[in-house]
Amino acid sequence: MLRVNIFLLLVAVACALLVVTAQHKARKLFQELEVAQQHERQLEVEFGQLQIEISTLATASRIDRIARAQLKMETPSAARMRLLGGATQ
Amino acid sequence: MRTKPPVSHKFAESPVLLLRLPAGRSRLISLLLLGAFIVLVGRAFYLQVLNNDFLQEKGDSRYRRDIDISASRGRIADRNGEVLAVSTPMKSIWAIPADARLNEAQVAQLAGLLEIDAGELRRKLASEKSFVFLQRQIPPELAQKVADLKLPGIGQNTEYRRFYPSGEMSAHLVGFTGIDDQGQEGVELAFQNQLLGRPGSRTVIKDRRGHVVEDVGAILPPQDGQDIRLALDSKIQYFALSKLKEAIAEHKAKAGGIVVADARTGEVLALANWPTYNPNNRESLTGGSLRNRAVTDTFEPGSTLKPFSIALALEKGKFRADSVIDTSSGRLTIGRATISDAHRHGPLTVAEVIQKSSNVGTAKIASTFAPQEMWEMLDSVGFGQVPGLGFPGEVAGRLRPWQRWRPIEQATISYGHGISVSLIQLVRAYTVFARDGELIPLSLTQLDAPPANGIQVFSPRTARQMRSMLEMVVERGGTAPQAQVPGYRVGGKTGTANKLEGGRYTNRYVASFIGMAPMSSPRLIVAVMIDEPQGKYYGGSVAGPVFSAVMGSALRTLGVPPDAPQQLIARAGTQREAL
Fold it and tell me: Can you give the pLDDT at residue B576?
């Protein structure tokens, strides 16, 4: 009888310790999840900011200005255009 | 003095232990202790099981926290996915003045970081209020620096700020939001319900250092606002606004508007007004430049309305395109009023009435209609009705009921006076000519398929006849050769209307042009309106060149193949270069 009791006591202690470790691990993992989610939010914010930057850099007025001033491009006149294929349907 | 050495005892032999306690006393003590123990157990049972709300609440308030999860407002993008409005989180710095006891150095440091005056900051911190904002919507990096100062009574929260990368370019269409994320103008207001996000929340347990340890209870996930994809094409919008701006500067006009619509789907590809404003700059958000003239302002359209009167005549079979109308006097008297043409023309065919824009000819043709049938036609193309774009501040314009028309009124309405319309209404009405007689609704958002709910107003034959008349307008002898587009066959109608002020016509004008291209199968409708040009004021010479430039660029941007014969392209081209 005594032996069985001691055995059960050991089992109970072992289980209790396992519960404690499991809880600890769960908290650790949860913290990691929190950090990852925080990171996700930060990346989203950054994505939004980069989108603003792209759109600002890609505004038609800026492209127009750079094409004309820096790259010396211009709209070709109709006389300099040749149409390939069927012009009239 | 000597003392006796202590007598040593063993504890077990202590004489005290030999004393017996009286039996009654010992029982009393045990009973008392037992009683006290039962009271304790009872109290514990009461607190933990029967009446645990209060303690539970106290406990929760120490480690349980409800956290709001913020949701962001939807983005607005153009048809090519280019972002026109996007929200990004910013921090607002607040203070609880009662707790914020800062020394001079700290005040100076904080004022420096927030870029506000130190005196102003001191005044805010001394205020009687329990909560004041020190600075709203500062970049997160800067807010971090403020947080690192660890000042007492100073805190921060997240707010979203709306950015408009395209700035003034699409300001009137996109609109803007207030500081609390409520749409106030344009699409931001029209689509407020879709754009708005719903914040979520979660309940968590926090440890002593403020870290979240565990989620308890259900998480209510935040719902981000829906993204809106507009029909707008940023490139066409840019051409439209910049050409409009140039024309207004050249003619020293007061204001103007331009609309580009896809005739096949009714999508609004560009909508611009001048003056405009920069939605990113809150100080500029007042005054007349906020007005979306193309949608909210009505004007007497003048001759751009003539095609509808003539189309009705063709439709009723009362006239043919080559029927001759005598307009040789250039004047027509109805009752006590006389209407006149800007130039004398002699006898004109119906087609030439459109080409030369003869008021007298149109009025003569219109005099054959019953007022009711004319009103019904104008009503069925949408005049006098709200255009139904869902845009804030849309106006119906003015179309008086036919029962109260006087004869002179019927004559003037036929050429666009005594009736008022908005530019967007005019564009919608012109879809009947671009689409073989079918009127379709306009759409601000991108459509997957052309709308199925078109209304047949005129027969396809009438619409095609009208298109060939509109094409004559831009040919030699018409009122707007300036509206030609090299490479494409275009057609349209000029409008030059005296402005009404206080019930009297002034010698100030609204010059307009509305047209379509390519005429072999119209794809685009472009309408230009310029308010009070100085010097030249005819629709053809003021609004025509804007139409030509915008239509040309838009057709090329969309890759619409030129439909004009080759030699015509070359000729128009050399003409261009010579100019």
Answer: 43
Nearest chain A residue to B212, by CA: A31
Concerning whether B166 is annotated as a catalytic residue, the answer is no
Instruction: Say yes or no: B242 contacts chain A, CB-CB below 8 A.
Output: yes
- Asked if the Cβ–Cβ distance from A77 to B577 is below 8 Å, we say yes
pLDDT at position B566:
61
What is d(CA B469, CA B491) in angstroms, rounded to the nearest whole number?
8
Cβ pair B327, B341 in contact under 8 A: yes
Mutation for A interface: B67, B166, B169, most A CBs within 10 A: B166
Size of interface A-B (CB pairs under 8 A): 95
Question: Which candidate from B87, B238, B573 shows the least CB-CB separation from A61?
Answer: B238
Q: Note the pLDDT tens digit of each residue in B406-448.
A: 888 899 999 999 899 999 999 999 999 999 999 999 999 999 8
CA atoms within 13 A on the CB side of B535: 9
Residue B569: closest C-alpha in chain A: A78
**Does any CB of chain A come closer than 8 Å to the CB of residue B565?**
yes
Q: Hey, what are B473's tokens?
A: 């307008």
Nearest-by-CA chain A residue for B213: A27
CA distance B146 to B348: 78
Question: Cβ–Cβ of B83/A59 closer than 8 Å?
Answer: no
Q: How is chain A split into domains, by residue range? A: 2-29+39-71
Q: What is the mean pLDDT of residues B358-374?
A: 91
In chain B, the domains with their CATH numbers are 67-114+132-194+201-229 (3.90.1310.10), 234-578 (3.40.710.10)
Parallel/antiparallel/unpaired status of strands B132-138 and B83-95: antiparallel
What are the respective helix, strand and coil percentages of chain B, to the nearest 5? 40, 25, 35
CB-count burial class (<10 Å; 0-12, 13-18, 19+) for B63: middle
pLDDT over 80 at B8, yes or no: no
- Tens digit of pLDDT for each residue in B304-336? 999 999 999 999 988 988 889 888 888 888 888
Give all strands (DSSP E) within B96-128, no chain letters. Answer: none
Give CA–CA dist B474/B484, Å, rounded.
6
The sign of the torsion formed by the CA atoms of B181, B185, B188, B190 equals positive
Mark yes or no for CB contact A87/B520 under 8 Å. no
Residue (of B496, B460, B179) closest to B358 by Cα position: B496
Instruction: From B108, B128, B105, B109, select the one nearest B119 (Cα to Cα).
Output: B108
CA B406 to chain centre: 40
Q: What pTM, to 2 d.p., does this model score?
A: 0.81
Token pair 């379509």 is found at B516
The helix (run of H) or strand (run of E) holding residue B155 is: strand B154-163
Which residues from A are below 8 Å from B72, CB to CB? 48
Specify burial of residue B298 (Cβ count, 10 A radius: 0-12, 13-18, 19+): middle
Strand B268-274 vs strand B255-262: parallel, antiparallel, or unpaired?
antiparallel
Position B135, amino acid: Q
d(CA B385, CA B396): 4
Diameter of chain A by CA atoms?
A: 110
Give yes or no for B246 touching A (CB within 8 A): no
Distance of CA B514 to the CA centre of its chain: 24
Dihedral sign, Cα of residue B541, residue B542, residue B547, residue B553: positive
Phi and psi torsions of B355, nearest 5°: -60, -45
